[in-house]
Amino acid sequence: MAVALILVLVAVGSVAFHLWSPWWSTPIASNWGYIDDTINLTFWITGFVFVVILLFMAYCVLRFRTRPGNRAHYEPENKRLEWWLTGITAIGVAAMLAPGLVVWNQFITVPRDATEIEVVGQQWRWSYRLPGQDGRLGRSDVRHVSAENPLGVDPTDPQGQDDIILDGEDLRLPIDRPVRVLLRGIDVLHNFYVPEFRAKMDMIPGSITYFWFTPTRTGTFEALCAELCGVGHAAMRGRVVVQTQAEYQAWLVGQRTFAELGAAARRAQASAPPPERDRYEEASR
Amino acid sequence: MIITLLFLVAVLGFLGWWLLARQGLMSKPWLETATPATILDTGASPLPTAKIGLGVFLGIAGTLLMLLVSAYAIRMDMEDWRPLPWPQLLWANTAVLVLSSVALHRARAAARQAAREEARSWLLVGGLAAIAFLAGQVLAWRQLAEAGYRPATNPADAFFYLLTALHGLHVLGGLVALARAAARLRQARIEALRLSIELCATYWHFLLAAWIVFFVLLAYAPVFPWLYAICRAPFG
Amino acid sequence: MSEIVPGADHPIPHDHADDVELYHPHSWITKYVFSQDAKVIGIQYSLTAMAIGLVALVLSWLMRLQLGFPSTFSFIDPPSYYQFITMHGMIMVVYLLTALFLGGFGNYLIPLMVGARDMVFPYANMLSYWIYLLAVLVLVASFFAPGGPTGAGWTLYPPQAILSGTPGGQGWGIILMLVSLALFIIGFTMGGLNYVVTVLQARTRGMTLMRMPLTVWGIFTATVMALLAFPALFVGAVMMLFDRLLGTSFFMPALVEMGQQLRYGGGSPILFQHLFWFFGHPEVYIVALPAFGIVSDLISTHARRNIFGYRMMVWAIVGIGALSFIVWAHHMYVSGMHPWFGFFFATTTLIIAVPTAIKVYNWLLTLWRGDIHLTVPMLFTLAFIVTFLNGGLTGLFLGNVVVDVPLSDTMFVVAHFHMVMGVAPIMVIFGGIYHWYPKVTGRMMNDAMGKIHFWVTFLGAYLIFFPMHYLGLLGVPRRYHEIGPTSFVPDSAETLNAFISVVALVVGAAQMLFLFNLAWSLRRGREAGPNPWNATTLEWQTPQTPPGHGNWGKETPPVYRWAYAYGVPGAARDFIPQNEPPATAAGDGGSG
C-alpha cells in the first residue's frame, strides 16, 4: 500500500513540480521558438509515458502483492502485445524525432542575408570582431596573436583593415537582422552561450565553427562559457546588447577599426609596456 | 573511422551469425524442458578454450589496430603533415619479422609431429628473430632521432614512434608467452606443448600482419587513396 | 527453428573436471589474497570498487557544499572544485560502476550461473584484479602528487587537459590519470577475456545460451562491448600522453596560451572527442546492460513470475549493445563537428530508445499478474525502473539534436546522466547486493536497516536529480563552481541548490548505514540457508553455501530447463530450479 502510494506521489509530484515550480526557461530573445516548441512537445510525450508507466507500476504493486495461496500467472511471452508496444513506441519516438530533424535543418541552414560576426574565446574572456565597411571579416591566424593584435587578425589582409575589434567591450547587435556567428578559440575549447538565444556551439582552436540566429528582443543579455576551459571557466562572462537599428548605427560609427587600433597600439608601446597582471585574478574579477 | 566501424560490423556480424545459426537465438527455451536422457548440447565450440581466448584477444587487438589506422588517416589529412624519410633499415626488420613468423610456423609443424627437439630449435630461431626485430626497431628510432626526426617534430614522426612502440610492446608480450612455452618444452605433455606453440604461432602471424599494415600505412599511405578515404571518412 | 541437436557433432562438456585443470590453493595467501578463484576475485573487485567509490562520494559532498553554499567554505577554491568533479566522475564511471558490475558481479556470478567451476583462465583473472588495484592506487596517488589530481573534467578534453590553465594539466595529475586509465584497460582486458570465453565455453551440460539467466546475458554483452570500446580510450590516452610528455601534436592545434605561442600545431582536438566518445557511449551501456540483466532476474525472482518476453529481452540486450557503437557523436552535437552528422546520430540515438523501452515494458509486464514480494531487493528494483525511466526519457531530449542545443553543457545534462547511469545502476547494485549477499556470506542482510537505507536513498536521489533538470532548463551551466550574479538565474535557484545539497548530504550519510549493515550482517545476520529467495538459477543450487572451491563438488549440475520456471502450472512449488529433473518424461514446464 505504502509503496504504491509513494509511486503515485512520485508521478503526481513530478508533474506538479513541472507545472508550478518557478524554474523554467528564460524568456526567449531569438528566432529559435521552434526549439522551445520541440522541447515542449518532448515534455508532453515523455511526461505522459512517465505518468502512465508509474501509475501502472503502482497498480501492479497494489493489485498483485503477494497473498497466501496466490500464484503468479505463467506466461512466457505474448508476441502480439510486445509488437503492439514496440509499434506505439516507435511512433512516439518518430513524433519527437521528425520535428527535431526539421528544426535542425533550419538550424544549420544559414540565411543568405546573415551578417557575419566573430566571437573569439580565450582564457577567460570574450572578444568580438565586426566586419567593417566592406561587410567582410579579414583572415585571421593564431600565429598573428600578440599584445597589439589580440585576435590574430592577418595584418596583410586588406579586408581585415576595416574590421571593428571589440576587446573587453560588449557585443552589440541590431534587432531582427540574422547573424552568422563565427566562433574561434585561440587557446582551448570554449562555448559561447547566451541562454535567451537558445543557440550555442563550441569553439575549437585551429578551426572556425558557427551558428546563426536572429535577435528578436532588445535588451542586454549575459553570455557564458559553456565548455570547461580551465579554472576561470565560471568567470568567463560577456554581454550582448541587442539594439534597434538606429541605436546600433549610431554606436557603430564611433568604433575604431583594426587599422586604427594598430596605429594607436604602436604609439602606446613606444611610451610604456603593459603591466603584468595575475591572470586568475583578472579572470575572476 | 569507417574502417573501424567496418571491422566492428565484421566482428559483431560474426557474433550475430554465430548466435543465430549456432546457438538458437530464436528458440523458445520454456518449451525445451529436457530429461536426463535428452539433455541439450550447449553449443560450445570443440576448439580448445585457449584458442577461443586468443581469438577474442586478436579481435580486441584488431580493434586497436583499426583505431590507430583511422586516427592516422584523419591526422594525415591535415596540412602540417610532412612524411618522414623512410629508414631503409625497416626493410631488414620486416624481413627478420617474416623469418620469425616462418620459424614459428615450422615449430608448429614440428610440434604436431611430436618432434620436441625440432620444435625447440624453431622456437629459438623465432624468438631470437623477434628480439632482433625489436633491436632493429630501436636502432631505426635512433637513426631517425639523430637525423632530427623526433616525436615532436611532426605528426608523421609522432605516429611513427607511436605505432612502432605499441607494436613493439605487443611483440614483447608475445616473447613472454614464447619464453614460457619454451621453458616447459621438456616436461610438458605433448598436447599441451602443441597447443601453446600453436597459440604463439597464431599470435606471431597476427603481429606480422599488423606490422605489414603499419609498414604500408607509414611508407605508402597515399598509394591507395580509396583505402585511405575509408579510414578517414566520415571526418575527412 | 533451433538447430540444437543433442550431442551430435559437438561433444557434451565433461560432467567432472580433470583434477589437473583445476587450480588448488595451497596456503592462506593463495586462497584469500593472490587467489585465482573467481568468487574471491569478485569479492576483491567489489570491495576495492566500493572503497574507491567512497572517495568519490566524499568528493560529491564537497562539490555539493560548494554549489549549495558558495563562498562559504574556504577550503574549496575553483581549482580544487574542478579536481573534485573530475575525480568524482572518473571514479564513478570507470573505477566503481564498470569494475563493480563486470569485475565484481561478473566474476562472482558468471561461473556460478552457467554452472562452471571457475573462470577459464584463472591466472589472467587474478592478474586482472591486481592490475585494477594498481590502477586505483595510481589514481589515488594523483591526490598526493604535486599540483594535485587533474581538473580537466572526466572527459579530459584537450587542449585544456594538458595546459597550465587547468589544475594538474602541467603537473602530475593528468599523467597519472592517463596512466591509470591505460592500466585499468589492460587489467580489464584480462578479466573481460575470461568473462566472454567462460560464457562461450564453460557452460555446464544443458545450459544453452537461451537458458542463461539475463544477468549473464547482460554481463556477457557488456563485456564484449567493453572489450571493443576500451581500445578507443586506450589509444586516446596514449596519444594524449605523447602530447603531454613528448610534445607531439596529435590533438594539439597551434595555440596561444596566456599570450604565449606554444610549439604545438596542426592537431585536432575533435579527434580526441571522437575517440573518447567512441568509448564513452558504449561505456554507458557497459554499465546499463549488466544492470538490465540483474534487474530482470531480481524482478522475476521476487515477483515469483517468469520474466515476460525472455527472447525479446535477449534480443534487446544484444541489439542495444550493437547499436550503441553508432550513436557516440550525440555527445558532440555542439562540439563543432560537421552539422550533417546531427541527422545521422539523432536518428540512431532515438532508435535505440525502442529496444530500451521494450525492456521497461517487459519488466512491468513481469510485475503484472505476478505474486509480488516487496523485499528489499524488489524495492530497489522498483526504484531502478522509476529512475531509469526518468533518465531514459530525458535522454530523448538530449538525443534529439536540436533540443540538445540549448540544454547541452547545462545542469540538465548533469541531472540526466546521474539519473540514468548514476542512480539507476546504483539501485541495481544495491538490489543485487541485498539479493546475493546470503549466497556470498550465508547470512541475510538486516531487513529494517535495508528498508531505511532504501527509502532514504531512492527518495533522496530523486529529490536531488529531478529538480536539477529545471536548473539546466533555466540555463545554469554545468562545471561552474558557482553561478554568481547573473541576469537570468533567479535567487530562488540558489535556494533550490542549497536544498539539493542538504539532501545529497543525507543520502550520502545513508550509505554509511548500508556499509554498517554489510559488516553487521556478516556475523549477526539471520542464517540464510542455500536458497532463501526460492530462486531457480544455478547459483542457488550449490552444494555448499557459501559455495566451496570448484563450486559444484564432484559433478557440475545438469540443466533441464530455462531460468524462469516460476509459477509453472501444475508444479508442486512456485519455482522449479534449472537443475531439477522433470517429474515425468513429458516434462512439466511446457505450457504457455
From TrEMBL, chain A:
Keywords: Copper, Electron transport, Membrane, Metal-binding, Translocase, Transmembrane, Transmembrane helix, Transport. CDD domains: CuRO_HCO_II_like_5 (cd13919). This is cytochrome-c oxidase. It is a multi-pass membrane protein. It comes from the Bacteria. The lineage of its organism: Bacteria, Pseudomonadati, Pseudomonadota, Alphaproteobacteria, Acetobacterales. Pfam families: COX2. Residues 264-285 are annotated as: Disordered. The keyword Transport applies. It comes from Plastoroseomonas hellenica. Its main location: membrane. Residues 275-285 have a biased composition (Basic and acidic residues). Its EC number is 7.1.1.9. The chain crosses the membrane at residues 41-62, 83-104. Residues 112-254 form the Cytochrome oxidase subunit II copper A binding domain. It is found in: Membrane.
TrEMBL record, chain B:
It comes from the Bacteria. Pfam families: COX3 (PF00510). It is a multi-pass membrane protein. Keywords: Membrane, Transmembrane, Transmembrane helix. SUPFAM superfamilies: Cytochrome c oxidase subunit III-like. The keyword rRNA-binding does not apply. Its main location: membrane. Residues 1-223 form the Heme-copper oxidase subunit III family profile domain. It is found in: Cell membrane; Membrane. The chain crosses the membrane at residues 52-74, 122-140, 160-182, 203-228. Belongs to the cytochrome c oxidase subunit 3 family. This is Cytochrome-c oxidase. It comes from Plastoroseomonas hellenica.
From TrEMBL, chain C:
The chain crosses the membrane at residues 40-62, 82-110, 130-152, 172-193, 214-242, 284-300, 312-334, 340-364, 376-399, 411-434, 454-476, 496-516. It is an enzyme of class 7 (translocase). It is a multi-pass membrane protein. InterPro entries: Cyt_c_oxase-like_su1_dom, Cyt_c_oxase-like_su1_sf, Cyt_C_Oxase_1, Cyt_c_Oxase_su1_BS, Cyt_c_oxidase_su1_bac. It catalyses: 4 Fe(II)-[cytochrome c] + O2 + 8 H(+)(in) = 4 Fe(III)-[cytochrome c] + 2 H2O + 4 H(+)(out). Its EC number is 7.1.1.9. Keywords: Cell membrane, Copper, Electron transport, Heme, Iron, Membrane, Metal-binding, Respiratory chain, Translocase, Transmembrane, Transmembrane helix, Transport. It is found in: Cell membrane; Membrane. Its main location: membrane. Residues 22-561 form the Cytochrome oxidase subunit I profile domain. The keyword Transport applies. Pathway: Energy metabolism; oxidative phosphorylation. Belongs to the heme-copper respiratory oxidase family. Cytochrome c oxidase is the component of the respiratory chain that catalyzes the reduction of oxygen to water. Subunits 1-3 form the functional core of the enzyme complex. CO I is the catalytic subunit of the enzyme. Electrons originating in cytochrome c are transferred via the copper A center of subunit 2 and heme A of subunit 1 to the bimetallic center formed by heme A3 and copper B. This is Cytochrome c oxidase subunit 1. The gene is ctaD.
